[in-house]
Amino acid sequence: MASDVPSRPMRFFVMKHVLWGDQDTEFSTVKANVGPAPHCPQCGDTIGTLSWQPPYRVELELYGKDFGDLVEGPGGDLLVTERFAEDFKAQGLTGLSGFHPVEVLRARRKRRGPKPGPPPRYLFVTPAYGHTALDMERSRLRISRPMKCSWCRYVGIDAIDGLALEAGTWKGEDVFRPRGLWGRIIVSARFMHFAERHAMSHMTLVPLEKYVWDPLGLYYPRPLQLEPPSRS
Ligand SMILES: [Zn+2]
């Protein structure tokens, strides 16, 4: 539906997990079957991680107060609640596929508090991948390998100081992983407004051009090496 795409500049956001948000929830898969990882149609290199195959069984870990409506798991797999999925479709948002029901075998509270009620029903969803591409010139990246393939755009990113998408590659998806940066989920402004109505305080949306990821201090050297947040 490219004709629906407005010509004015679109705003996009990187979805980022916030530890200790009120709806901070994580999951681990239970004896998961895995299938092959996707491959780049142009160079054949692996993109992303092994695909999760049925049965979809998980253990939930509740770090916040309530179960979140969107939960990111190992390898970037994504769960959403049934009510999130229904609203997502009802609002006409696009970019998620799958919607496979997931069996929750166990839900454990990882922080002190009352025993959690029964978890909501979750569905396994996959964000779109394949159209929208990172603009490798306009994004500020420290890379460890020159780009060899214009489709998957793998460069080995060591640090990010602002991202940009290549004009004309976005086909209207509200949730997607960009070519060149499979590991990040990017959402539209429409999705941002949608997310405000859901239990997603454990996710923050950072404007694309302001997104910083600099674990080694390459852009912003740190005098002190801070300990990464620990949950143990
Ligand atoms: Zn490729």
| Proportion of residues in helical segments | under 10%
Largest sheet: 8 strands, mixed
Mean pLDDT, all residues: 89
Q: What is the gyration radius calculated from CA atoms? A: 18 Å
- How many H/I helical runs? 2
Question: What overall geometry do the principal axes of the alpha carbons give?
Answer: globular
Which structural class should the secondary elements be placed in? mainly beta
- Ranges where pLDDT stays below 50 over 5 or more residues in a row are none
Q: What is the beta-strand fraction? A: 25-35%
The number of strands is 16
- Bound chemical compounds: zinc ion
Number of domain modules: 1
Give the CA-CA distance, first to last residue.
47 Å
Return the string of H and E elements. Answer: EEEEEEEHEEEEEEEHEE
Short description:
Helix content is 7%, strand content 34%.
Q: What is this structure's SSE topology?
A:
Blueprint: E1 12-17, E2 25-29, E3 33-35, E4 51-53, E5 57-62, E6 70-72, E7 78-81, H1 82-90, E8 96-101, E9 103-109, E10 122-133, E11 141-143, E12 157-161, E13 175-179, E14 186-188, H2 189-195, E15 203-207, E16 212-213
Parallel strand pairs: 5-9, 10-13
Antiparallel strand pairs: 1-14, 1-15, 2-5, 3-4, 6-7, 7-10, 8-10, 11-12, 12-16, 13-14
Bound molecules: zinc ion.
